[in-house]
Amino acid sequence: PERAGARTPGPAASGHSFRKVTLTKPTFCHLCSDFIWGLAGFLCDVCNFMSHEKCLKHVKTPCTGVAPSLVRVPVAHCFGPRGFYKRKFCAVCRKALEAPALRCEVCELHVHPDCVPFACSDCRQCHWDGHRDHDAHHHHWREGNLPSGARCEVCRKTCGSSDVLAGVRCEWCGVQAHSVCSAALAPECTFGRLRTMVLPPVCVRLLSRNFSKMHCFRISESAAPEQGEGDDGADGSAPAGLGREVPAPDSSKQTLKIFDGNDALQRNHFRVITVPRQARSQEMLEAALRAYYVTEDPCDFELQALPPSVHTVDMGTRGRTRAGGSAEEEGSRGPGSRESAPEAWILRALPHTQEDLKIYPAWLKVGVAYVSIRVTPRSTARTVVLEALLLLGRQAEGPESFQLEEVLMGSRQVQRTVLEDEEPLLNRLRDIRQTSLRQMTQTRFYVAESRAVAPRVSLYVAGLPFGLSAQEYGSLLDEAVATK
Q1: 292: Cβ–Cβ under 8 A, 6 or more apart, which residues?
Q2: Hey, what CATH topology would domain 253-349 get?
Q3: Using one digit for the tens of pLDDT, what is the confidence trace for 235-261?
Q4: What is the pTM for the complete model shown?
């Protein structure tokens, strides 16, 4: 569709940024899956969600840019090898999968290879890492890609669509419904017809983390990621979330490479945006943020131009040049300079003397999802833990038994890092943003109990004499181990 008109005032529900567009080809609503009659529709500039005007107030599906912040327990996906999936749609950019794509073998999430880094880590949680915090098991909804004959559990009307990503299905019990109708269903999942055969996740606990989730589910892993399946794709040459097709050359527009941090620059991983040649600096910045699904205030970011010498030399030299500061000097002209517009830019977050940081409790049975804490240059991991415990009502339990964990919610792997007590937190946030803005949007901080987990190993010992007591057997084993 051809974009036109003005943006709807204020952010829409579920984090979408809708604006009125003029439709030039047959288009369907992503909520009701009906045809949009007329020339006007409403499109989210970030995730490409298309809607009737009458359906806007009913949209509950979160935008790709805010979906990671709504995940309760981050769980990485298990993507199998690339394959062709007819009449399927990407869960990130909502475009059709016309080329070989990836599918999670556990929760049936479908994505383009270059959309994998932006996929939300909301896979099915098939085992419990800690103590039980839930009294009931809830539905695990996955949007779209339903069978053609799928019918809504509530209204009994067709809820599947081969034209757009519409409808939802629980990955546990298999119940299917319209996204609007799903709110009328009981939130508790009963595991459907296989309830007598399914072992609930709260009944399964893995005591060892020495093997991957792919190994746990017996999913074959390739020795190395295929081309295009890196952190941001192989070369980032695909349009940034606006489809797989390459736009036709247009003399009135220009194509720019956008890097989101030092890591992308060193790996040569970029996203491509197309903007008018006379675009203002603010328009270029907003387009670059949309390319990385960043929905924060554009006033907190800036675009810095990269001179040709930075992004044409070899990988190692480029990294050293960027670190030396020449890119910042070149970028000081700002993206508004039209006489020699560079083809490569890097997104940077503007530094702040203080920030509001969301701290999540590692235990789930609390009245709030997170607490906000003001982080200053004097804030450390220990001071943040003390403030968080006070707000969560657990200050009497002793702060020495808690720690601050940094959790990177990647689509392929969820990484946890325990921060040192005296580590300055504001510097930590700046370092993450310098490395990758996308990584910052997928990073959370948890206050968790610092429990020392002792490994448990079960051994089978043969050749022992018969008829001894447990104490005598223990003495024999102690003597045998002592000699080793």
Answers
A1: 118, 240, 258, 260, 271, 347, 437, 438, 441
A2: Ubiquitin-like (UB roll) (3.10.20)
A3: 444 444 443 444 555 678 889 999 999
A4: 0.77
